[in-house]
Amino acid sequence: MNSVDLAFTPALDQARLIRQGEISPLELTHLYLDRIETLNPLLGSYFWVMAESALEDAKTKTDLVSQHRQQASLNDLPQFFGIPISIKDLCRVAGVPCSYGVGVLRNRLATETDGNIERLQQAGFVVLGKTATAELGSTPYTEPKGFPPARNPWNPDYTPGGSSGGAAAAVAAGLCAIAQGSDGGGSIRGPAACCGLVGIKPSRGRVSHAPFGEKLSGLATEGPIARTVADAAALLDVMSGYLLGDPYWLPPPQTSFLDATTQALAPLRVGFATAIAPMGAADPVCAEAVVQMVWRIEQLGHTVEPIELDFGELIEPFTLIWQAATDVGVPWFLLSKLNRWLLWRSRRRTSGAYGRALMQLGTIARKIVTQLDAVDVLVLPTYLHPAIRVGEWATLRPSQTLEKIIQWIAPCPPFNATGQPVVNLPGGFADNGVPLGVQLIGRPGAESTILTLAAHLEAAHPWHDQRPAIANYE
After folding, report:
1. What is the block-wise mean pLDDT of the chain (474 residues), using blocks of 10 residues?
2. Which SS3 state, helix, strand or coil, does residue 461 take?
């Protein structure tokens, strides 16, 4: 196997190769660090590369694999032992900078590690570095002030999405085996769509925010970005579970999410839409991606039916809550013009207005879930039009940028409000060579259903062997 093929081998297969002694964690880590050194200056995927600590950790894990092989106890090692992963720079890793995409904070060291990142470390992953995020995670493109913009490996003139743009670009370019991201309004699904990957926004309460909490009143969650459904499902297994004091939690699934990808599936009722009021119809190429996905679902024996959707009443309360997340103690003059404007808007609103927005959001979310109760799965475009160019909205007034954002990402935020699980699947390509995405939205807490369906779709029409031309070097 050549180095490019190895870099794009699914993480679970890499773990099998490690156990078989065909590669070592140290060799795999060197491979990704070499690729990062070559491609990251072009793509801006990583803010920080933790080369020294990654190599030290990989060497220790290589020695442990050898010891366990001699003792015939390889099965005692965690499933992803020795697999390189990236961490989005909205999460803390003790002793490593954590900037939240704010340029002046680029050298501020975290003193603690997020609970979910500790889970990844305990699962045996080797952390390669911190991936680029939009400033404060607030935009669906990754162009934070003070950092190079993240670029799409499929066409570097275009964005990889945001706010987990660096994570998605890294996976798509073969700069890590798998990635951790977060999603408060589409920030996993959008980048996964723009980069031709699988991205899961789990149900609210599936993944812990311990010990620090999250700043969007239950709208945000962490989740996986990967090349295959099985990799994403297995990483979700690692990330899932209650930690003491969590304000929301769910019972564990009856079987693991990875096991769900190998199960049979009874016929489902599947709804779909290619337009969302009041924003209107998706770009024809995005609509066609949904139509093709629905056709494939129908070929698998499921019943499909169109659904009319109107998310107009969600826009105002969601925006009020979302913009309040810019008020995190960073002085206004250090922020981008959009975040300065959002912070100004937020501080003009009272706590009572915020509380009313939360109540409105809860009422609207119940209406959405009730409307969708007639179907097992809903299929939507991930975004209403293909990826924008890097810097395309840089000269707009903040109010214009906000309007553009709402129009683009409209199919995503409703399911942060409802807390439903969603998986983005690759949906082909736009004329500019940039990937498109399609969302499968499940019932509350029903990740297993959408992951089983996603795995069946992947098996019928594989996509994980596709890779951008920029990544095919040795």
Report:
1. 96 97 98 98 98 98 95 92 98 96 95 96 98 98 97 98 98 98 98 98 97 91 98 98 92 96 97 98 98 98 98 97 94 95 95 96 97 97 98 98 98 98 98 97 98 98 94 84
2. coil
CA-based end-to-end distance of the chain: 12
Q: 187, 217, 336, 346: which one is catalytic?
A: 187
Q: Where are the alpha helices (DSSP H) in 3-93?
A: 3-7, 11-20, 25-43, 51-70
Phi/psi of residue 362, each to 5°? -65, -40
CA distance 474 to 470: 11
> Closest by alpha carbon to 210, among 176, 241, 168, 254?
241
The catalytic position among 45, 61, 88, 182 is 88
Amino acid letter, residue 130: K
DSSP 310: B
Instruction: Tell me which residue has tokens 């309004």.
Output: 185
What confidence score (pLDDT) does residue 72 get?
A: 87
Active-site residue flag, 187: yes
Containing 337, the helix (H) or strand (E) segment is: helix 337-348
Q: What residues contact residue 63 under an 8 Å CB cut-off, 6+ apart?
A: none
Would you give the DSSP letter of residue 438?
Answer: E
Instruction: Identify the three-state secondary structure at position 155.
Output: strand
User: Which tens digits make up the pLDDT trace of 366-382?
Assistant: 999 999 999 999 999 99
| Nearest residue to 332 (alpha-carbon basis) of 324, 321, 341 | 341
Q: What is the pTM of this model?
A: 0.98
How far apart are alpha carbons 471 and 344 in whole angstroms?
42
Structure tokens that stand for 87 in this block: 């961490």
Q: Domain 3-471 - what CATH class?
A: alpha beta
Q: How far apart are CA 257 and CA 420, in angstroms?
A: 16
Residue 451's Cβ-side half-sphere holds a number of Cα atoms within 13 Å equal to 31
Catalytic residue among 99, 138, 163, 346: 163
